[in-house]
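Reopening this ticket.

The earlier resolution said the output was attached, but the attachment link was broken on my side. Pasting everything inline this time so it's all in one place.
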Amino acid sequence: MATSGDRFAGDLGRDFHGVRVAWFDSLGGVPFDRACGPVVDSRRSAFESLGCLVEQAEPDFEGAEFAFKTIPRLAFGPAPWRAVSETSRLL
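Inline output:
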């Protein structure tokens, strides 16, 4: 990084006591680099020291795989939608 992180060490401008923070272990089963877990976990205490209520929570990504596979296909333009429209018209 070209700049230091000093600007993030200053006053946050508000009180964080009682703010709820959801903390995850496996991100709902989504794969991510194993080296990330210990790094993320090492910062949990930073939120607690601000007065945040850090609670264990795993997001529910059921059904999200369909969106993750479908949305990138939209980059190809209207052609896929046209094919779906034409197919459903024939049914």
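Reporter confirms the inline version is readable. The CA atoms of residues 19 and 25 lie 20 Å apart. The mean pLDDT is 80.
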